[in-house]
Design goal:
278 residues, alpha+beta, five-stranded antiparallel sheet, disordered N terminus
C-alpha cells in the first residue's frame, strides 16, 4: 500500500497535482520498521525520470538517469549522501508549464556550462531543420568576413558563420506576432523570416554572443545559428548585427528560412529551473 501511494505521489508531483516539497515535510512513513523496509523492494519505476530520459536524452554511449529508484518520500531511509539526496530532490522539481512545453518538443539535449562563461548553460538541439546545402538563389553575394561588437574580424569557416539570435522563451513554443504561421521556433524546427528592423525582411542576428543584453529571470534566451555566408550588415543600432535576408517579397514574411540552422539554446544558469540543471 505504501509503495502504491509513493509512486502516485511521484507522478502527481511533476504534473502539478501536489507540490513535491510536501513529501519532504510530511513523508509517508512505512508501516514496518526501517530494517524490514530496507530489505524489501524500495526501488520503483519513476515516471518523472522516464519522461526526463525521453525529452532530455543522454548522448550516445552515456547512461541516462536511473528510472528505477527509491521514491522521494522514502529518501530518509536511503543510504545516499546528503548531497545526492538534494540533487535527487532538485531533479524531480515540478517544471513551470512553459518549460514543460519546451521539453515536450523533443528538441533539447541535456545542457552543460559554457567553457567561456560559466553564467551560461548551453543546450544542444536535435531534430531541427538542416541548413540547405547551397544558399538560396536570391543570395548572390558571399560575405567573406564579419565584425562583432568588439570589432573583432570573423572569417567564415567551413562555409558558414556562427551567429546568435535573441528570443523570448515563449516564442520557442508559441507563434510570434511578426512571423505569420509560426508555431514557435522549436515547434517549427527552425527560424522564419519576419522581423523587419528597417533593413529588410529576414533573420536578424549578432556576430558574437550578446551576453550583456540579458538579466536573470528576464524570460529570454539566445540561440546559436549556423548561417550561410550571405549576411548583410545592419545599419544603425549596436555593432555586430547582421541580417540573413529573404527575397523581400510579401510572401516571404513568415516563410521558413532554409539558409540557417538552429544549433543550440543558451540560458542564464542562475534562472534555470532546478530540473533543467542536470
Amino acid at each position: 500500500m505504501c509503495v502504491i501511494l509513493c509512486v502516485c505521489a511521484c507522478v502527481r508531483c511533476h504534473f502539478g497535482a501536489n507540490c513535491m516539497y510536501s513529501w519532504i515535510v510530511n513523508p509517508i512513513r512505512p508501516l514496518v520498521d526501517s530494517e524490514t523496509w530496507i530489505g524489501m523492494a524500495m526501488r520503483v519505476t519513476c515516471e518523472i525520470c522516464v519522461w526526463r530520459n525521453r525529452v532530455l536524452p543522454p548522448d550516445i554511449g552515456e547512461d541516462g538517469e536511473e528510472e528505477c529508484h527509491t521514491p522521494l518520500c522514502l529518501l530518509y531511509l536511503s543510504r545516499r549522501s546528503s548531497i545526492n539526496k538534494r540533487i535527487m530532490v532538485a531533479m524531480h522539481e515540478e517544471l513551470p508549464g512553459l518549460w514543460r512545453d519546451i521539453c515536450n518538443t523533443d528538441k533539447l539535449n541535456p545542457g552543460s556550462f559554457c567553457t567561456e562563461n560559466k553564467r551560461w548553460f548551453r543546450f544542444p538541439l536535435r531534430h531541427m531543420n538542416r541548413m540547405s546545402a547551397c544558399p538560396s538563389l536570391h543570395l548572390q553575394a558571399l560575405t567573406e568576413k564579419i565584425e562583432d561588437y568588439e570589432r573583432n574580424i570573423i572569417h567564415g569557416g567551413f562555409g558558414y558563420f556562427t551567429m546568435y539570435h535573441c528570443v523570448n522563451l515563449q516564442n520557442l513554443v508559441r507563434g510570434h506576432e511578426k512571423s505569420p504561421g509560426s508555431s514557435g521556433i522549436l515547434c517549427d524546427g527552425g527560424m522564419r523570416y519576419g522581423c523587419d528592423h528597417g533593413d529588410g525582411i529576414g533573420v536578424y542576428c549578432h556576430a558574437s554572443r550578446p551576453d550583456a543584453l540579458f538579466l536573470e529571470h528576464d524570460g529570454r534566451c539566445f540561440l546559436e545559428l549556423r548561417c550561410h555566408r550571405s549576411l548583410t550588415k545592419v545599419e544603425g543600432g549596436s555593432r555586430g548585427r547582421y541580417v540573413l535576408k529573404s527575397d523581400q517579397t510579401t510572401q516571404s514574411k513568415g516563410a521558413l528560412c532554409t539558409d540557417c540552422q538552429v544549433v543550440a539554446m543558451f540560458h542564464l544558469y542562475g534562472s534555470l529551473p532546478e530540473f533543467m540543471k542536470f
